[in-house]
Design a protein that fits this description.
Length: 703
């Protein structure tokens, strides 16, 4: 009948280089379903990298090799017609007479109607980009063997080659009918791959739904904008998300290491990536660019959060512990990354935000105002709104090794968020310690408020912002009032307590304090002690003497005092008498009377920890985990112990902030000692509850 047919055998590359599937054209008179295999088996795996949640007992999935031979359907039309005879192995709408016409919709009809993993490629005539305008959502993708949709097969297309940003050339654009009209792809099965396409102006561009939807890959796409990266929505539309993962979808990969696998998430009416529901776990979001143009030179905002992990979604990883896994999350109208909201008896727990650049340009070298996330950088949010109290909510989540700049609050805890750990991040400045332009838009480095409790903020660098860490009961961002509210807003103020601050490097802060416990405004030390609903009303410790040999102080019985070298604030009228705590040098524990001595040197062979003439300040933490403000600064005097042989070169580093290794394109801070943080350092402290399952483990899973 004059019809042309083709069949392709293919092999899986495994590493997804410039093309996801490497295909070999083989001349054949007819497409055949012979030679296919069933879908690959699901494999058990621990969490991909980082902490091992040994007590979870939930199987993760590894992305299996797709071995089925299958059929390659070649789309050669921008039309939207259905297939004339789904299941016959022929992509043909029947509209071309003797010459078959293959649309994307028809190819999906065929791929879904037959078993085995098929591939959809493109060969649309004429210059691109070629725009497809579906009248309705595409057919649901639910073949267990999956399908690969490969936009890079279109002549003229090429994947990204840049180490940062993206220079991908896309020749297939798929446009929806507005952010309140139709979804794009609805994936209900495993082993699907979507690569090399631009999708925009949908409600949910790619929806990954249900427990059968695992081990899918979304790599090398533009999601939310067109192929030229000029389209962007102009207002927020709730749930108009680029990738929407829900109802137990697990072990899916959104981006992967390797330049060709980087997705651009920009111009969306709501979130870039959103995850919801119990069982939605072990998903990886890696090596993506959010909220900027491909070269990072301008904002192309996502109107919601860049990434949202929500409603009991747990054990997901944003970024990663290995080179090339970190994301650039910038330009969000709301938060860069949010972890939020338990539902029912479930808990949003075990999620990791690791080694991302949040609020910077793609290479991390600058943080212009346009790159900032306008709400929060990393947001740990409990209840959507609180009434008479803020109950226990999200817990056991981790943020480590990130650079976070340019948000109203760079790190936020509130509304019942508890037992979360923020460790070894750089907050308020760039990775090399230099100022961030966008910090002009920042009010707090870390804000803990409105019923957040028992969270830990440890070994971070916090610098270049007006206030370092503020802890308060008041809610600066109250929920919208409901018609039934007698008092509006009802979630205005809740006790905030048990939050531990330890060994953070806090510098260049002003006009506020390094640590401020306050019901509002700026606290001012012993003359303005915190009220009982702020960190249990813990008082500032008092230094009685400090020499190069030792420090003595008074504090609460059994409390732990941390000693810091502190600079004079670079501002006046900014509580400059109180320390900021730039470099931690030692700890000590008070006796039953509240007296504490911290010994620096006990022998002339000991290195100096602090030098005479320098200044120190301390803060204290009680048995319940409440950390105080810094004390007044005190000048170090010479001690009685003779100096070491080379006193100017024997300063013990005590501890600069240890950093988790940063993404390969960023520099480690020059002011810190850079070491890889082992997962054995992390212990998420929480109540004796089955909901809090993170335990101290090493990376190899030995607990």
């Amino acid at each position: 009948m004059g019809r042309r047919w083709s069949q392709r055998r293919r092999r899986e590359t495994g590493s997804l280089p410039s093309r996801v599937m490497v295909a070999e054209r083989v001349a054949s008179p007819r497409r055949s379903a012979s030679g296919r295999r069933g879908g690959a088996a699901r494999a058990r795996a621990a969490l991909v990298a980082g902490l091992v949640f040994a007590s979870v007992g939930v199987a993760a999935h590894t992305n299996p090799t797709i071995e089925a031979a299958g059929i390659v359907f070649v789309v050669d039309s921008t039309a939207d017609d259905v297939d004339a005879a789904p299941g016959d192995g022929i992509c043909d709408t029947g509209t071309g007479g003797a010459t078959p016409v293959c649309t994307l919709r028809a190819a999906l009809d065929e791929a879904d109607a037959r078993p085995g993993h098929d591939t959809i490629e493109f060969a649309i005539p004429g210059p691109g980009p070629h725009r497809l305008d579906p009248a309705s959502m595409y057919p649901r993708i639910d073949d267990p063997a999956g399908v690969t949709i490969d936009g890079y097969s279109q002549p003229g297309a090429s994947p990204n080659t840049l180490a940062t940003g993206t220079d991908a050339v896309l020749m297939i654009e798929i446009r929806g009918r507005g952010p309140d009209a139709i979804d794009g792809f609805d994936i209900r099965s495993a082993n699907n791959v979507i690569t090399g396409v631009s999708m925009f102006d949908f409600v949910r561009h790619i929806r990954i739904f249900g427990s059968a939807a695992h081990d899918n890959r979304v790599v090398g796409n533009f999601l939310g904008t067109d192929a030229s990266a000029t389209f962007g929505q102009v207002a927020r539309q709730t749930n108009a998300n680029a990738v929407h993962i829900e109802r137990g979808a697990s072990a899916n990969r959104i981006g992967m290491p390797g330049a060709a696998n980087r997705n651009l998430f920009a111009g969306n009416a709501d979130k870039g990536v959103a995850m919801f529901d119990s069982g939605t776990q072990f998903n990886l979001v890696q090596n993506n660019l959010f909220g900027l143009t491909p070269d990072g030179s301008a904002r192309l905002t996502n109107w919601g959060h860049g990434i949202d992990i929500n409603f009991n979604a747990s054990y997901n990883v944003v970024g990663g512990w290995n080179p090339g896994e970190g994301n650039v999350v910038a330009g969000s109208e709301l938060s860069g990354i949010e972890i939020s909201h338990n539902v029912g008896t479930g808990v949003t727990t075990g999620n990791q935000v690791v080694n991302n650049l949040i609020g910077t340009v793609p290479d991390g070298s600058a943080a212009p105002i346009y790159a900032g996330n306008r709400e929060f950088g990393i947001n740990f949010e409990g209840k959507p709104r609180c009434a008479d109290s803020c109950p226990v909510d999200i817990s056991g989540n981790l943020a480590a090794g990130n650079v976070v700049v340019g948000s109203n609050a760079d790190v936020m805890f509130w509304k019942g968020a508890n037992d979360n750990l923020v460790v070894d991040n750089i907050i308020g400045v760039l990775a090399d310690g230099s100022p961030a332009e966008s910090s002009a838009a920042t009010t707090w480095g870390v804000l803990i408020q409105a019923g957040a409790f028992d969270n830990r903020v440890e070994r971070n660098t916090i610098a270049g912002v007006p206030r370092g860490v503020m802890i308060k009961p008041d809610n600066d961002f109250p929920s919208e009032c409901l018609a039934s509210d007698v008092v509006c807003p009802e979630d205005a103020s809740f006790p905030t307590y048990g939050n531990t601050l330890s060994r953070n490097s806090i510098r260049d802060i002003g006009p506020g304090l390094g640590i401020d416990l306050s019901a509002g405004g700026f606290s001012s030390g012993p003359d303005d002690p915190p009220t009982a609903d702020v960190q249990g009303g813990i008082a500032i410790p008092v230094v009685t003497e400090v020499t190069t040999d030792a420090l003595t102080a008074t504090t609460c019985a059994g409390c732990t005092v941390e000693v810091f070298v502190t600079p004079t604030p670079a501002c006046t009228g900014c509580f400059e008498a109180y320390g900021r705590g730039e470099r931690w040098v030692a700890d000590g524990t008070a006796d039953a009377a509240g007296d504490v001595t911290v010994t620096f040197r006990s022998d002339p062979v000991d290195a100096y920890v602090v030098l005479a003439g320098s200044q120190v300040a301390i803060h204290t933490t009680d048995a319940a985990g409440n950390t105080s403000e810094h004390s007044l600064r005190h000048t170090v005097t010479a001690g009685l112990i003779a100096p070491p042989a080379s006193p100017t070169t024997t300063i013990s580093p005590g501890s600069s902030t240890s950093m988790v290794s940063l993404p390969p394109t960023t520099m480690a801070p020059t002011t810190t000692t850079t070491t890889l943080v082992s997962a054995s350092m992390f212990m998420i402290r929480g109540p004796a509850s089955a909901d809090v399952r993170a335990v101290r483990c090493t990376l190899d899973g030995t607990c």
